[in-house]
């Protein structure tokens, strides 16, 4: 496998076995509990920043309390055998904490903050949140703007640098592994399509059928943490 490039495209499902809820699970998913357009859009932020801030602050602290699972760790361990790039829609840091060195966050990070007016990064104090609450006033910037999470909300563009690196990582891949995403949110969902149209094999790992399953080169109905640790050795056999 020397000189092979593996590009992983991950979504919320890879962190599910770390105890992080996904978005679209009908019972436990985040979008089953809150209105995505109220809590995750710039309109919602303008209307009630204190509600949006409280929700993201809760998720920030929740992510600090969970650990990478065998899936994150396996992808990092592949770096001993291949050049591995991780393109993730996740705003957690579990790939990095699992040991991956090339991670591109298409939807931003729960661990970065910036001013909603002047874009100045913020690394000042955050209010403690021992338990989830519905309303917390966001800190203010020196310019008078409000501090917001550095995540991508509905209707906002993706960070250009992460997007460019992700496209390159897909174009240069020998194989793309798509794990734990419902593959419905664009432009991220266009990356497996880019791989397929470039003749790059795409292997999907997901316990459920998704929008990608029918077109993937191989679609494994399986969970990330139990499948990824042995996947790299099995690739030659799986791809024939
Ligand atoms: P979704 O919640 O849409 O999909 C999670 C996927 O993970 C589903 O297809 C599950 O079947 C699968 N899954 C669950 N447990 C799994 C496991 N143990 N192993 C492997 N797969 C598992 O999450 P995303 O596709 O990541 O965007 O959602 C994409 C974007 O939609 C998010 O980044 C977020 C959301 O709106 C923004 O906030 C901008």
Q: How would you describe this protein?
A:
- The active site is at 107 (proton acceptor).
- It is an enzyme of class 2 (transferase).
- Pfam families: SIR2 (PF02146).
- Zn(2+) binds at residues 115, 118, 141, 143.
- It catalyses: N(6)-succinyl-L-lysyl-[protein] + NAD(+) + H2O = 2''-O-succinyl-ADP-D-ribose + nicotinamide + L-lysyl-[protein]; N(6)-acetyl-L-lysyl-[protein] + NAD(+) + H2O = 2''-O-acetyl-ADP-D-ribose + nicotinamide + L-lysyl-[protein].
- This protein has 240 residues and is of the alpha/beta class.
- The chain folds into 2 domains: 1-19 and 68-107 and 158-240, Rossmann fold, CATH 3.40.50; 21-65 and 110-151, SIR2/SIRT2 'Small Domain'.
- The chain has 9 helices and 9 strands.
- The protein has helices at 13-16, 36-39, 42-47, 49-64, 70-77, 94-98, 160-171, 190-197, 224-239, and strands at 5-10, 83-88, 103-105, 108-115, 121-122, 147-151, 175-179, 202-205, 218-220.
- The chain has a 6-stranded parallel beta sheet with strand order 3-2-1-7-8-9, sandwiched between helices.
- Strand 2 (83-88), helix 6 and strand 3 (103-105) form a beta-alpha-beta unit.
- Helix 7 (160-171) runs parallel beside helix 8.
- 39% of the residues are buried.
- The model has no long low-confidence stretch (mean pLDDT 95).
- It binds 2'-O-acetyl adenosine-5-diphosphoribose (OAD).
- 2'-O-acetyl adenosine-5-diphosphoribose binds at residues 11-13, 16-17, 22-24, 29, 40, 89, 107, 152, 179-182, 185, 205-208, 210, 223-224.
- The site of 2'-O-acetyl adenosine-5-diphosphoribose has 25 residues, from helix 1.
């Amino acid at each position: 496998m020397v000189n092979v490039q593996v590009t992983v495209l991950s979504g919320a499902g890879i962190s599910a076995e770390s105890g992080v809820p996904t978005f679209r699970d009908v019972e436990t998913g985040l979008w089953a509990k809150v209105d995505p357009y109220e809590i995750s859009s710039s309109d919602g932020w303008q209307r009630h920043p204190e509600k949006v801030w409280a929700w993201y602050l809760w998720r920030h602290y929740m992510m600090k309390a969970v650990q990478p699972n065998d899936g994150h760790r396996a992808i990092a361990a592949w770096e001993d055998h291949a050049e591995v790039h991780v393109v993730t829609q996740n705003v957690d840091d579990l790939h990095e904490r699992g040991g991956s060195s090339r991670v591109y966050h298409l939807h931003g990070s729960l661990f970065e903050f910036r001013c909603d007016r002047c874009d100045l990064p913020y690394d000042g104090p955050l209010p403690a949140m021992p338990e989830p609450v519905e309303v917390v006033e966001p800190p203010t910037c020196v310019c008078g703007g409000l501090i917001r999470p550095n995540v991508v909300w509905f209707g906002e563009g993706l960070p250009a640098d992460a997007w460019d690196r992700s496209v390159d990582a897909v174009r240069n891949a020998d194989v793309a592994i798509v794990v734990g995403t419902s593959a419905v949110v664009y432009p991220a969902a266009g990356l497996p399509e880019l791989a397929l149209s470039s003749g790059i094999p795409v292997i999907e790992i997901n316990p459920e059928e998704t929008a990608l399953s029918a077109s993937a080169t191989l679609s494994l109905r399986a969970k990330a943490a139990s499948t990824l640790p042995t996947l790299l050795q099995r690739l030659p056999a799986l791809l024939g």
